[in-house]
Design goal:
homodimer, mainly alpha, three-stranded antiparallel beta sheet, globular
Chain lengths: 120, 120
């Protein structure tokens, strides 16, 4: 999935040591953004923004991905004409061991409990 | 610490099954609220709002405690003339095992890394 070289302008990302816990929690606190993160974690590969089919407008989708990128939760790169997204799992696990996994597990439990079919 | 009987009107709290992951993450995503939660976890007893000495106005302090209560992170009761606060650890651990501990550990690591002296 990462054979296509990156193209175009590079998007700004925080370095690992600039990633803050509060910003990460804020990024994960939104249902749409949590859904994006769960899907990225489940797939384990880069996905384009349009792969998610979120039930919100394109501009809202762009906003959610920007919040995730600026908080350090995901990395976004242009490949060809697509903006591709990947979870920064190594950075998050290095900074906050177990945090991402516990949030993902909590989201799974909540989906099961509510029977909302949002499990990924 | 809980010998004084509760007094006055009861404040509204979500039942355990009404506590949502996104609301909990949002409540924890603020530096002042995270500080309150860390101190409650470290002390392990009820504390009054004024015990925290937060560097914000009284109305902002009240707001932060209300967000924590309404999200299900803390329980607030009146005892005598004081409003007392306790972490809803049993409820949170029951719903989302390991989540609170991983957030507390992440906050400790961040404080150590930044040397901000906010460790509690």
């Amino acid at each position: 999935m990462t054979d296509t070289p990156t193209t175009g302008r590079a998007l700004p990302h925080p370095e690992r040591e600039e990633i803050g816990l509060e910003a990460v929690l804020h990024a994960l606190a939104d249902p749409m953004r949590l859904r994006i993160v769960r899907e990225l974690a489940a797939e384990g590969v880069e996905l384009s923004c349009s792969d998610f089919g979120l039930p919100v407008t394109k501009s809202t989708t762009t906003h959610h991905f920007r919040v995730l990128r600026e908080s350090g939760v995901i990395r976004q790169v242009y490949r060809g004409t697509a903006k591709m997204n990947a979870l920064r799992r190594d950075d998050l696990d290095g900074l906050f061991p177990g945090l991402l996994d516990s949030v993902l597990a909590a989201a799974d439990r909540q989906s099961l409990r509510l029977g909302d079919g949002a499990g990924v």
